[in-house]
Amino acid sequence: MPISIDKIKELAKAYAPDTVQVRRHIHANPELSFEEYNTAAYVKQVLESYGVEAQPMANTGLVALIKGKNPEKKTIALRADMDALPIVEANEVAYKSKNEGVMHACGHDVHTASVLGTARILQELREEFEGTVKLVFQPGEEKFPGGASLMIKEGVLQNPAPASMIGQHVFPMLAAGKVGFRSGMYMASADEIYITVKGKGGHAAMPEMNIDPVLISAHLIVALQQIVSRHASPKMPTVLSFGKVEAKGATNVIPNEVKIEGTFRTMNEVWRKEAHQKIKKLAESLCESMGGSCDIDIKFGYPFLQNDPEVTGIARAAAEAYLGAENVVDLDLWMGAEDFAYYTQQVPACFYRLGTRNEAHGIISGVHTPTFDIDETALETGVGLMAWVALQELEG
C-alpha cells in the first residue's frame, strides 16, 4: 500500500518539536562559510541518531543515503546548506546567536533542520518505498566559489547519480503554511566586477596638469549602462549595478586611481559571456579615450538557476495535494543568486520557496538582515512537504 499524505503529516507533526529544537541549536551556533565544522558534526550526530550514516565531503559538507526497497530503482537528492552570514543578530530570543557577529540570517538553519526532519521520516518509512534518497548537506552557499561547486567536483552527483534534485529555501515575503514554485529560469547568475581606473593625480585646482580618474569613472559608470539598455535583449533579464566607488583623494586632491566594484546578473549563459567581453572592451576604450587606462577583472560567479519543468511539475502537484492548491503560489523571476544553480545545470532539479512570514507576530524581516527570523510552524510544513515531494519524485 502506498504511503499516504496523512501518514506523512502525522509524522511531521509528531517530530515538529524536535525539528524546532534542531533548528534552534543550529541557529544559536552559526558558523561562516567553509567553517561549518561544528555544524557538520552536529548534523552527522543527528543523522546517526536516526540510523543514517553520513560521509564527509568538501571538508565541511556531508552526504548520506536513505535506501528504500529496491534501492537501485531510482535515486533523488535533497539539498540543505549549512553556513551563516557575518551579521550581528538583533533578535532577543532564547536561541539568539552565541557567536558574536555571525548569524543564520538567510534561513540555512531552517534548510538543514528541514532536511534532517525529512530524513527522519523517510528513514522510518524506508521499507515502504522504492529507491534511494541522497541527502546533501553542503557548506559555503554564501561565499564564492559556492559549496555546491565543490560538492559536485567531489562527486556528490555520482555513486549513485540522482535522477532529480530538490532544494527548499525560506521566503519571508510569503506567509507560513504557503509555498511558491516557478518552472524554467528562476534566479540569475551573479558575477563580480572589479575595475581600477588609472589616471594622473595632482592638485584639484590645476586639472590641466592631471588625468582625472574620478571624471573618467563617472563617465564609465554611466556608459556601462548601455550594455544593458542597448545590447541586452529586452526579453532577457539583465542587471548591471555598481555599489562601491573608492577615490582616495580630497577636496583639493585628484587621486591617481579610482576603484569601482559591481555586479552583473542575467539568465542566459551565452549572453553572460558576451556581456563580459562588451563590458571589458567599453571600459578599456573609454578610459583610453580620456587619457587614462584601466584594469578590469570580472569574477565568474554562480550560474543562473533553472527549474526543470517535469521535476517542478511533480513537486508542485505534490505541494498542492499536501497543502491545498490555495497555499501554492506562482513565483516571479528573481535576480538574486543561489549556488543551487550549479546543481540545476547538471541534473533536473526544482528549487522552491517555503513561506516563513507571520505579520501578527511581527515576523516580517527579510533575509540578510539582523532581525530575520521565522514562524517556526513553517518547519512542520517544510519537513512534511519535502518528504512527500521526495516520495512523489521517486515514483515519477
UniProtKB/TrEMBL annotation:
SUPFAM superfamilies per record: Bacterial exopeptidase dimerisation domain (SSF55031), Zn-dependent exopeptidases (SSF53187)
A family per Pfam: Peptidase_M20
UniProt keyword annotations, A-Z: Hydrolase
Keyword Hydrolase (UniProt): yes
Location of the Peptidase M20 dimerisation domain: 194-287
Record-given protein name: M20 family metallopeptidase
Record organism: Pontibacter anaerobius
